[in-house]
Amino acid sequence: MSKLEEMAKKLDLAAIPNIDFDAYMNASKDDNQKIKRVSDYIDELEDFINSGDQISGTQFPFAKLHSLFGFRDSEVTLWTGYNGHKKSMMLGFVVLKSFLATNEKTCIASFEMKPVKTITRMVRQFSHTAKPVDADYANFIQQVGGKLYILDQMGGMTPQRLYGVITYCAKELGIKHFVIDSLMRVIAGEDDHNAQKDFIVKLCEISNATGIHIHIVHHTKKGDENKPSGRYDAKGSGAISDNVHNSITVWANKNKLKDMPDVILTCDKQREGEWEGRIALNFDSQTLNFSESYKESA
């Protein structure tokens, strides 16, 4: 019996039942409960005053950003970049090293990659090895098996059904982060700007109502890949970046340009924080790990 089979026998996780996700979109709204006096916010104001300039939310796994950025509850973050520039890989790394490392349940809806492929890539990052063995997979499952969820759905999903899935994950499973990879698998038409706007606005409503943090991967328009892109270079409607709370762009030095780092991570929008900027990162192609670089980036 392999170590993975032994691990499977030891796991005692309750099965996830068949769920009518559509039912989660039919809950009645009591808007009367949303009308409040200013005095109702005294406790929240006190906490805000006492926290000062402290960054709230889960931190990036990079020390440079600990005092600059946080993944807060009830927000939506847009992850953009050119095709093949490691934005999904970076997000998976952050899920592993930040969210799961702090016991925050996360669900990944990767409509472009089979679940086994997603898991294997994260095992490489987790075990720091290019070719994980049974023991590496077993250790990964033991550490994160009860915290990491995968939406087993290839190809895509209708917005309405996805709203129900996210709401169910937040309310019933206690999931804190939900990854959508990618937006084009939910809203297929690049020119359907109204549908894109409606989708993002609805995600913001769901995140606000449930406290879940939603991460959306989205592609950048074709351009000069030797230069980092930004949120305004994202395909489709400008309402996508206008309505999210945060925008992160990942650029990889695919052409090995001199005096440029392996990867540049840029924050060009942070609604609840003051910092916007970029940091340089190293990338290990064997283990798929990212680390801080002190190389200057242009």
Q: Can you characterise this structure?
A:
This protein is of the alpha/beta class. The protein is 31% helix and 18% strand. It has a single domain, classed as P-loop containing nucleotide triphosphate hydrolases (Rossmann fold), CATH 3.40.50. It has helices spanning 3-10, 42-51, 87-99, 115-127, 134-144, 159-172, 193-210, 239-243, and strands at residues 76-81, 106-110, 148-150, 177-181, 213-219, 246-252, 263-270, 277-284, 289-292. A 9-stranded mixed beta sheet has the order 3-2-4-5-1-6-7-8-9, sandwiched between helices. β8 (277-284) and β9 (289-292) form a beta hairpin. It starts with a helix and ends in a 6-residue tail after the last strand.
